[in-house]
Write a structure and sequence with these properties.
The chain is of the alpha+beta class and about 375 residues long. Among the domains are: about 105-195, 2-Layer Sandwich (Phosphorylase Kinase, domain 1), CATH 3.30.200; about 200-365, Transferase(Phosphotransferase) domain 1 (Transferase(Phosphotransferase), domain 1), CATH 1.10.510. The protein has helices at about 1-30, 30-55, 65-75, 145-165, 170, 200-205, 210-230, 280-285, 290, 295-315, 325-335, 340-345, 355-360; strands at about 105, 110-120, 125-130, 135-140, 180-185, 185-195, 200, 235, 245, 250-255, 260.
Length: about 375
């Protein structure tokens, strides 16, 4: 009976191998365009299934081919001694369909002017508080779904930071001060002081900033993110888009806390965190749960390093496209101590090259701890 069972199993396996071989033979005869279409559809189906599983707290221990190549080529990314916690997973977060008012609209006591910023989870207008004539920044969120969650998160994170006594007054000034909130029928408004100047990105893209400006930005960026880490929060979207720079006062403000979470909490929205040119290798490596499920300060530290390089060199460390390849090249060069390649990649950073290299260490546990003072 045993031999008969084994024989049947062997015949079944042989038949399966024959079918797979026939499919492989057909595949070799297909045109590249047909193959690419099937690859695309297969990857989309895989991502859809993975997202559905993750929304229920289930994890796939497999990754797509490009993710596996990234993991093998980089060969880094252990989180050291940081423990994996067992908090429940949150569902995959999708951008809400937000209907926002138009320029010139009156919302309560606020007269909206031009749109000065927008993202997946909110839109920011320059506005006037009509009774006082004071300029303010008004950020609008949808009243339900993800919009409401982001609204609550913004207030929660900044309130936590500003309420901690160990944070210095100067460090507190690096965050927006909320002045009011206003609830409308279809959206809610969060009002902060208006920062003169603009996004740091618009200054950095014009070329390297003057030495004194760069020094102020380097110090204040580390202080602002360090203050968040001091109260056990991680920003998770540090970029030159989310720093506001006032060149007249040489003052930086960190904004947009929609993605911020408690440090060391488990979360499955890893592949949506951090704008790609500032995304750490362990976040690109989204399928490796041992590296990604933890929300740790090291991810913000890498992004700060990218911001500093952009300010002093006048260009992005990882370029403007092909970020996955750029991260792989950087990590491979650093881990294999290819000094010539590292020098080329850091070209333009000058005396700040060692700092950028330290902040953007491929191994998360080897990146420095940022402090608020």
């Amino acid at each position: 009976m045993y031999l008969q069972h084994r024989l049947q199993a062997w015949v079944g396996q042989a038949t399966q191998r024959h079918k797979v071989g026939a499919i492989a033979a057909d595949w070799r005869n297909w045109a590249d365009g047909v193959k690419n279409e099937w690859r695309r559809r297969s990857q989309e189906e895989f991502r859809t299934q993975r997202a559905a599983s993750l929304s229920h707290g289930l994890k796939h221990d497999v990754m797509l081919r490009d993710e596996a190549v990234m993991a093998d080529a980089v060969g880094m990314a252990t989180l050291g001694t940081i423990p994996v916690l067992t908090e429940p997973a949150s569902p995959v977060k999708k951008p809400p369909a937000v209907s926002v008012p138009t320029d010139g609209m009156r919302v309560g006591p606020y007269q909206l002017h031009n749109n000065v910023g927008a993202g997946s989870y909110g839109t920011v207008f320059k506005a006037t508080h009509v009774p006082s004539g004071r300029y303010v920044a008004a950020k609008l969120f949808s009243i339900d779904g993800s919009g409401h969650d982001d609204y609550v998160n913004e207030v929660r994170v900044v309130a936590a930071i500003l309420s901690v006594r160990c944070i210095s007054e100067f460090a507190r000034s690096l965050f927006p001060h909320y002045l009011a909130h206003y609830k409308h029928d279809s959206f809610q408004l969060l009002v902060t002081q208006f920062v003169q100047g603009g996004a740091l990105r618009q200054f950095a893209r014009q070329g390297p900033l003057p030495t004194l400006d760069a020094l102020a930005i380097i110090m204040q960026a580390q202080q602002a993110v360090g203050a968040m880490h001091a109260v056990v929060f991680v920003h998770m979207d540090v970029s030159t888009h989310n720093f506001l720079w006032n060149p007249d006062q040489r003052h930086l403000t960190l904004i947009d806390f929609s993605m911020s979470e408690k440090s060391r909490a488990k979360d499955f929205r890893h592949d949506m965190y951090t704008t790609e040119p500032y995304r750490a290798p362990e976040v690109f490596n989204a399928a490796r749960a041992s590296m990604v499920q933890l929300l740790v300060p090291a991810t913000d530290v890498w992004a700060v390093g990218c911001c500093i390089f952009e300010v002093v060199a006048g260009r992005r460390l990882l370029g403007n496209h092909g970020w996955r390849y750029a991260v792989r090249r950087w990590c491979y060069s650093v881990l294999n101590k290819q000094t010539a390649t590292i020098g080329q990649l850091l070209d333009g950073a000058g005396e700040w090259s060692p700092l950028v290299a330290q902040l953007c260490n491929p191994v998360p546990g080897s990146r420095p701890v940022l402090v608020s003072d």
